Amino acid sequence: MARNNSRRARHDFPDDGMLAFAGPGLLSGEGGGGSVRGYLLHRVKPHLPPWLAVGATGVAGALGHWRWADSAAAGVGLTLSSVLLTGATWWAGKATSQQRRLHSAITVAAGSAWLTAACLAGPTAGPLDDLFLMGGPVVALSWNVRMVLRRNDADPQGDGADKGLLEKVGLARAMLGTAKVEPNRVTAPVALAAGEQTNDDMAKSLGRIASALDLPTSAVRYNPDPDSSRRGELVIVPEDMLGDVVEWEGPSNLGGSIAEPLVIGRYDDGSPLQMWLPGDPEAGRNSTHVLVAGMSGSGKGDAALNLLTEILSRRDVIVWFSDPKAFQDFAPLRPGLDWAVEGGSPTEVMVAAVQAAIPARTRWLGAHGYRQWVPEAAEQQTSREHTCRPDGRPCGCPGMPFLVAWWEEAANTLRNMGDDAFTGITQEARSAGMAAFVSLQRPSYDQMSTSTRASLPSVIALGCDPRDEGFVLSDDVLAAGARPGAWGNRRPGYCYVVSPGIPEDRYASPGRTFRFTHRAVEVMELLAQWAQRNGATTDPVTAGAVSAVAGTAYTGRAQPGDEQPAPLRAVQEDEPMDNSGLLVDPEDAGIDPEADLPGSEQGDDTPIFGQETGRKPTPEEARQLFARALEEFESNGQMIVGPKDFMDWCERNNLSRPWVSARLKEAAENGRLEPTNTTGRWRIVPTLAAA
After folding, report:
1. Can you give the pTM of this predicted structure?
2. What gap in Å lies between CA 254 and CA 311, rounded to an integer?
3. Percent of residues in the chain assigned helix, strand, coil, to nearest 5
C-alpha cells in the first residue's frame, strides 16, 4: 500500500509545484537523440508552448475572419467568450501564486481581445497585424523568462519561486527553491517570510504537507538551518523502503575495531543505519552512552541483538551484560560475553564493579598519554608516545580494550537500586573507554533520573505511545518530523537513531533494524565461539578493579571447550544421593544417643528468628562465626547480603537477628562490608581488598 501511495504521489504532484520528481532521462541529460540537434531540441522543448500558442492565435484569427467577417451575432459571441475565458482563468488561478494568477489572466485577456478583433475586422486591419507581430513575441517571451527565473538556483526565494505547495498548507509567503532530486529522496531549500514566519511554523505544517502529497507523515521532514530562524530544507522520501523485512545475515565487520561504525539496519532511503561508540579526536566525535527505548512489541530485542552482535564481532572490546529475563533473547551469544548476570543482587555487584573500574581505567589511560580511548589503547604499549615510564622508554604494558556495560530491561534494576543507579556511571564512564547501554520500555522521569537521561547522548527510539515521545527524543528532533508514536508496536524494528557521528539532518529519518529469526541462531552461536577465541580479554587494571569489588562473582569469559559459560558453572544439578555409609552427619557421629542432654547455657533466653530463645555466643566466637559466614557467601559469588540472607545460618547456629544486625554494622565499620543504595543491604568487600 505504501508503494502504491508513493507511486501515485509521484505522478499527482501539481504542475505548478516546485517539488517535481524528475525522471531518469531528465536527470542524466538524455535528449531525443545523441546529436547536437537532439540536445538542442531537448533544451528548447520546454520553451515552445508559448510560441505555439501565439501562432495558433494568429491562425485562429484568420480563419475566424473568413467565417464571421459580416456576422453581428458572432461579434457578440466572441466578445462574451473573451470575457468568460478571462474570468475563468482568474478563478482557476486562485490555487497558484499571485504573480502567476495575474500573468495568466493578462495573457488570456490580451490574446482573446486580439482574436475577437481579428475575427471581425480581419487580422491585417488597422494596427492588428503590428500588434500581433510585436505583442505576440512579447507575451511568449514573458512566459519563457518566467520559466528561466523559476529554475534559477541563485534566487531560490525570488518572485519567480513557486509557492503553490506551501500556500496549500498556510505558508503562502514562504518560498521554495529548486529541488535536489536523489534516488528516493527530494530536498528543497525553504525561505519563510521574514518577520512573519519561523522554523517552528514550518515544523507544525509537516503533517499538512504530507497530506497534500498523499504521503505518510514520517516521509516528510524539515531540517532547520542552525544559523537562521526562517530557513531550512524540506526533505521528502516518497517511497518507504522499510516495508520489506531484511533479515540479519551476520556481522558487518568481523574482526574490525569497535571504533569503526556498527551497522544495525537501513534508513528509509536505503542507506545504511549505523552508529559509533568510541570517540574520534580527529573527526571531532565524542564517545557515547546509548539508551534503547520502545514499548513492548516494538522490536527492542532485535535492536539489541543487532548492536550486541556487531559489538561482539570486534577484536578490541569486552562486554558486561545484565539481563533479568535470564538471557531469553541472548542465550546464543552468552558464551562470548566477558561477564553475564541475570539481575537482582548480581546486577548490583556489576553496577558497583563498573563504578570501581572507572577511576582505575581513567588513571591508566592518563598515565599512558590518552585523553580518551582510541584503538591503539587496546594494543600492547610499545610506543614512546604512550608509556607510563618516567624515563620515556616504552613500557610494554598490556592494552586496555573498550568496555561495554549493558543493562537490559533496566527498569527492574532501577526499581531495586533507585532511579539514579546509573547516574555516576553515565557521567564519568565515557572518559574511561566505556559505553553504558540502558534498555527499557519507558524512560519516564519516575523511573530514570533526569541526570541519567541527560548523560545518555545516544538514543535508539523504537515505536512508543505518542505521549512518551518526549521521553525518548528531544524537542528539536520531534519538530523536524520524527514521530515514533505513530508506529507503536505495529511496525517492529522501525526506529530513529540520534548519536554522535550521524548527521543531524538524519536524526528525524526513520530506519529499521535487521530482523532476527530462528535462522540466525546458528550464526550467533558461531559468532560467540569466534569471540571466545579471538575477542579481547580483560586487561589487568580492569580485572583488578572489578575483582576488588566482585570477588569470585566475576569469573571472566568462558574458555573454548567449556560446557557452559563461566557464570553458569555454579548452577549445577544436585548430585545423586549416596545412600551408603552412615546416615548421620559426621559431626554427630560421636554423640551417644543414650546420654543426657547438656544443661542450659548463658544466653539461651535471647530471642531469635521465629523462636522464643536462643544462645548468645562469646564475643570471640561471634566474630569467628560471622567471618566464616561472610567467607561462605563470598565463595558462592553472593556479594550482596542483608539480615534475611542470614536467617538459615542463624537457625543453624542458634543466633538472634538483632545480633546479626549488630555484626553487619560492625563489619561495615571494619571495611568488610559497604552499604548499597538499598536500605538494609550490604556489599561484601573481597577479603584481599578489605585487608
Report:
1. 0.64
2. 10
3. 45, 15, 40
Give the pLDDT confidence of 175-190 residue by residue, as tens digits.
Answer: 888 888 887 788 889 8
How far apart CA 152 and CA 462 sit, in angstroms, is 41
Cα–Cα distance, 101 to 88 (Å, whole number): 11
| Inter-residue contact 304 to 244 (CB < 8 Å) | no
Ranked by mean pLDDT, the top range of 109-113, 219-223, 510-514, 640-644 is: 510-514
Name the CATH architecture for the domain at 602-690. Orthogonal Bundle (1.10)
Residue 687: what pLDDT?
A: 64
Closest C-alpha to 335, from 512, 621, 569, 30: 569
Euclidean distance between CA atoms 433 and 263, whole angstroms: 21
Query: Are residues 105 and 97 in contact, defined by beta-carbon separation less than 8 angstroms?
Result: no
C-alpha 560/C-alpha 542 separation (Å) is: 22
Concatenate the DSSP letters of all residues of 262-302 into one string: EEEEEETTS-EEEE--S-BTTTTBPP--EEEE--TTSSHHH
CA 334 to chain centre: 24
Asked if the model's pLDDT at residue 33 lies above 60, the reply is: no
Let me know: does 290 contact 437? Beta carbons within 8 Å.
Answer: yes
DSSP sequence for 513-550: EPBP-GGGHHHHHHHHHHHHHHS----HHHHHHHHHHH
Task: Give the three cell numbers for residue 253.
Answer: 565487520
Q: Which CATH number fits domain 2-18+161-236: 3.30.750.24, 3.40.50.970, 3.90.1520.10, 3.30.980.40?
A: 3.30.980.40
**What is the residue extent of each domain of the chain?**
2-18+161-236, 30-150, 262-513+523-567, 602-690
Look at residues 64, 175, 178 and name the one whose alpha carbon lies nearest to residue 119: 64
Higher-confidence residue: 106 or 576? 106
Number of C-beta neighbours around residue 665 at 10 A = 12
3-state SS class at 644: helix
Cα–Cα dist 568/18, whole Å: 63
CATH code that applies to domain 262-513+523-567: 3.40.50.300
Side chain identity at residue 673, one-letter code:
L
On whether the CB atoms of residues 614 and 627 are closer than 8 A, the answer is: no
pLDDT, position 512: 95
The total number of residues written for the chain in this structure? 691
How far is it, in rounded angstroms, from Cα 114 to Cα 112? 5
Neighbours of 612 (CB within 10 A): 8
